[in-house]
Amino acid sequence: MGCPIDVVNQKGGGCALPNRANKMVEVLTAMRAVMGSIPLSVKIRTGIREGVLTADETIRTMVTAAKPDLISFHPRSKLANWEYVNPCLEACGDVPLWVCGDVLNWEEYYSVCFFPTTNVICLNCLFLLKRLEEYPIGGIMIGRGALIKPWIFTEIDERRTWDISATERLDLMKT
Fold first, then answer.
1. Per-residue confidence of the chain (175 residues) as pLDDT tens digits?
2. Measured distance CA(65)–CA(55) in Å, rounded
């Protein structure tokens, strides 16, 4: 349900599926039935229309009617709308919420990162502490940042900028 492609949305799929709540529940219920014990995760966006935030209601519907095991939330169409994370987090109840969007380097990862289940906290500065209190999410997903810089996970692990040569970048792409 996170697909923003117009052709998919025009047919009622992707980001448009949550606008058809009954169909969304039907799809999720069918997925749950065929998946058996395999965990079900769902990725959603803020909503299909710019400036119209519907994800919190979508999450409430999902959690009530066809509870997924994990919800990943993409709070952006341009820059991530972190102010909209908490209403979505509240709507999740006990379902973990992972957030993706605008994590392009290791500093941005640690500025939003707090994993209550593992107690991993970055204590770099007061700003980060405030951010952790504001957004106690279950995890971070990285998409665009990994496409731009596939070594972002090494940077996150080592907590440093990994400035590599063009040859090293090419070697990474070959593996």
1. 878 888 988 888 888 898 899 999 999 999 999 999 999 999 998 887 777 889 999 999 999 998 999 998 887 666 777 778 889 999 999 999 888 877 788 887 777 654 444 333 333 334 444 555 666 777 778 888 888 888 888 888 888 898 888 888 888 778 7
2. 15
Enumerate the β-bridge partners of residue 72: 43, 98
The residue whose two tokens read 């994993």 is: 115
Write out the catalytic residue numbers.
3
Q: What contacts 129, CB < 8 A, 6 or more positions away? A: 123
Q: Which helix (H) or strand (E) covers residue 87, if one does?
A: helix 85-92
Closest to 110 in 3D by CA, of 156, 64, 153: 156
Q: Where are the domains of the chain?
A: 6-174
Looking at domain 6-174, which of 3.40.50.720, 1.10.287.110, 3.20.20.70, 3.40.1360.10 is its CATH number? Answer: 3.20.20.70
Beta strands in 1-138 (DSSP E): 41-45, 70-74, 97-100, 114-115, 120-121
Q: How far apart are CA 12 and CA 18, in angstroms?
A: 9
Tokens of 113: 């990162």
Rounded to an integer, what distance in angstroms lies between the CA atom of residue 93 and that of residue 95? 6
